[in-house]
Amino acid sequence: MSANFEAKKVLVGEITEKIKNSKSVVLVDYEKLTVAEVSELRNKCRQAGCEYKVYKNTLVRKALNELGFNQFDADLNGPTAVTFGSDETAAAKVMVAAAKDYEGKITLKSAFVDNAYVDKNGVKALATMPSKEELVAKMLGSLQAPIANFAGVLNNLLSGIVRVLDGVAKSKQA
């Protein structure tokens, strides 16, 4: 086997591992971006906890096929960039925002989230969803609200009793 074949095999293994370790993977067409815009987009991805990479379509296709997903074959044509996300929504949010910021230069293709194929409309929907951490925070806040309200009621009740007892004590002194 040639050294080139072995290098490609290693690269497919690397892509496969990145897909497995990512909560989401978004595919976009980046054909018209300038080098400066790509650098800016990479920085935005880094800030959001994502990684923006460009691989050969055949290598990404092979990695996804090894994982048992061939729905992406149609999307892996033309210039394709892959964004690996640290959570389910981060990569989608960055890429949807980039599609708006770089009008007409980035086109959403599809995504791989929760071991499932997501089309470009699904990617747009993912971008509008709060992250898992935000949802957990909201849930904890809603669970905490009744407890805080109950504590407030008890506090008011106790302070009311103290005021009544204080009033009784003052009236007996007079």
What does this protein structure show overall?
Strand 4 and strand 5 form a beta hairpin. The protein starts with a helix and ends with a helix. Helix 1 packs across helix 3 (57-66) and helix 4 (90-101) crosses helix 5 (120-128). The protein has helices at residues 3-21, 35-47, 57-66, 90-101, 120-128, 132-173; strands spanning 24-29, 50-54, 81-85, 107-113, 116-119. The longest helix has 42 residues, at 132-173. 60% of the residues lie in helices and 16% in strands. It folds into two domains: 3-129, Ribosomal protein L10, N-terminal RNA-binding domain (Alpha-Beta Plaits); 130-174. It has a five-stranded antiparallel β-sheet. By secondary structure, the chain is of the alpha+beta class.
The run of helices and strands is HEHEHEHEEHH
> For this structure, what is the CATH class of the largest domain?
Alpha Beta
Alpha-carbon Rg, integer: 27 Å
Report the major sheet: 5 strands, antiparallel
By CATH, the superfamily of the largest domain comes out as Ribosomal protein L10, N-terminal RNA-binding domain
Whole-number tally of structural domains: 2
Flag low-confidence runs: none
Residue fraction in strands: 15-25%
- Number of DSSP-assigned strands: 5
**And the CATH topology of the largest domain?**
Alpha-Beta Plaits
Q: Tell me the span between the first and last alpha carbons.
A: 105 Å
What is the overall silhouette?
Answer: elongated
Helix content: 55-70%
Major sheet: order of its strands?
Answer: 2-3-1-4-5
Oligomer: single chain
Average pLDDT figure: 84
**Any idea what the CATH architecture of the largest domain is?**
2-Layer Sandwich
Count of alpha and pi helical runs: 6
Name the structural class. Answer: alpha+beta
